[in-house]
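Quarterly update from the structural biology core.
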Amino acid sequence: MTQVLNRNGSNLIKILVILFDFAIINAILLTLTKLIPSIVPTFILDHTRLTLILANFAMIISQSEYSTVLHLRSTKFLDAVKQSSKLTYSHALILFLSLRLVSNGESLFDFMILYSVVCHIIILCSRYAEHSLLKFYRKSGGNTTSVIFIGNDYANAEIYNKLMEDMSTGYRVIGYFADDNIAGVSSNFIRLGSMNDLNNLMNDSLQVSENDKKELSKELIKNKDINSKSFQLAGVQEIFCSLSHNKDEEIKRIMQFCDKNVIHFHYVPRQFGNYQLNLKPEQLGEFRLYTNRKEPLLEVQNYALKRAFDIVFSGCVCLCLLPFLPIIALIIKLQSPGPIFFKQARTGSDGRNFYCIKFRSMHVNADADKIQATKNDPRKFAFGNFMRKTNIDELPQFINVLKGDMSIVGPRPHMLKHTEMYSQIIDKYMVRHFCKPGITGWAQVTGYRGETKEVWQMEERIKRDIWYIENWSFWLDIKIIFLTAKSVIIPDKNAY
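Predicted structure, tokenized:
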């Protein structure tokens, strides 16, 4: 969702957060020089005023590049953490280089490391407090922005639902204008009138002061009085429009109205069944195109980072696994005659097949490539059941990762029979193969692991797989790995 500034106070919030950042760095430097002078370099003690000037100068430069994003409505706390980390360490680096230029050659490195760590911790704590206070303030009705939707596309309903899920964003939805009702939406999402009604309101809309707009906005939100003569769109601050492209004249008219009345306009890509355009811009020579799906892993630096992590992490796991391999192999052999490893053809990246390696957890059977494991599956032997519950059977897949067939995190690879079956009955099923399959994945740590008894369960798994592909980040991978490790300690109820 587009991050949008609210004119009612968001700039002030940003300024206050920035000023508090300056207060923090000055307080830290003064505290260290006054209370713990033994750890402070002599140059800084002798030139405290100059150090403070350089520190503030360094913070100005860092703020220009990595300023706070808390005031943006759709900002997640993790995004604020990332931005704050960049801010802190860029500030410390600039300060260090500045002090090196004016100092007498005295070593400053150890002190600057300590200073940057202390700054980082305190600024992160302040961000948490600021984020919590801002959420509470917006939930209480402060720093709000009034919104109307235009068009009856279901994409409008999905955005509305997201806004209502988290009232701390401060969006207050008045309703929508459309010639027809949006099917299947909450009764709280009120149809304000037809497109003709909207045109009439835009024709009759009066220019009013900002204070009048604020008061009118509050009244509209409180009463939702759509028949009131005072409802002239003057209280609206944001418009989300999902009209079809063939309504270009109407869209143009709405955009002109927004420009004249200082209203933020946002176009919502329409949905085509289960498909919705993400409209990521791409350049083809002098032509600008828009792709339907964002894929962060298509960026070279992201792919390289993920692959490097896969190699290092998998290499360490394989080395740690070596001493235990004979023990696991012996137990498997004692409980069930047959091979130690189970190899199965599965669908990988770009729809290519590969052989997935696991510790064998079932007795050798003819249905291994056809039927999923069930809760009380008689094919499992005792130690095999334990391995499946604790994910031990998946450990040989780190070899697949080293080979490049898999990644540590990604959509789980399915057996060929399931790929053939579900690709025919589930829309977008094959989209999950836009990236390498993983040992663990977002679907698995969000409750969709194991047997899929109903088609809807697989559909939910696919939704999460696609979400992962479109929202990949290195920190998301770390989060999934952590949640997977947690499931080893506290076995998932679907782990069988």
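The longest strand covers residues 171-177.
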